[in-house]
């Protein structure tokens, strides 16, 4: 016979012999003792009893407190009167406060304006050389409102801004 076949047959005989010896040990449950499991379950909590009473009418004091009427919604005519662009979207305005070459300077000014309560953000202008980083405040829908913001920033921060159209 070929040596390879002899080795395979001997290996198969050894494996079968090992299985005959060890498999009965594994599957016999004689040596195993049942495990005692202790479970500590707390007692059932006492549910407090309560009485159901008749509903009580609200006091006169609560009747005096009338809810605040909701803010009136703008009418269709007011919405149409607002300025819209060619895509029928409302025109928004932003205030360009400054332009910087260094990002750190722009971030410092943005953070200062945010601490002052303004909605400041940074916009990168990559289409010009050198690359510029603009600091803007806004957007707002009303041109009058952005003019008020411009005046307030000029007074408090000594910065003259330029009102620009907001483009997302």
Description:
By secondary structure, the chain is of the alpha+beta class. It has a domain at 90-165: Alpha-Beta Plaits, CATH 3.30.70. Helix content is 38%, strand content 16%. The chain is built from 5 helices and 4 strands; from the N terminus they run H-H-H-E-H-E-E-H-E. The protein has helices spanning 3-27, 60-64, 76-81, 103-115, 143-157; strands at residues 93-100, 120-125, 132-140, 162-165. The radius of gyration is 40 Å and the shape is flat. 11% of the residues are buried.
Task: Supply the helix-strand structural class.
Answer: alpha+beta
Q: Identify the overall geometry.
A: flat
The first-to-last residue Cα distance is 84 Å
pLDDT average, as an integer? 79
Which strand order do you get reading across the main beta sheet?
2-3-1-4
Helical proportion, percent range: 25-40%
Question: So, CATH architecture of the domain at 90-165?
Answer: 2-Layer Sandwich
Number of helices: 5
The biggest beta sheet reads: 4 strands, antiparallel
What's the CATH H-level homologous superfamily of the domain at 90-165?
Answer: Sporulation related repeat
Strand fraction equals: 15-25%
Q: Secondary-structure element sequence?
A: HHHEHEEHE
Give the low-confidence spans. none
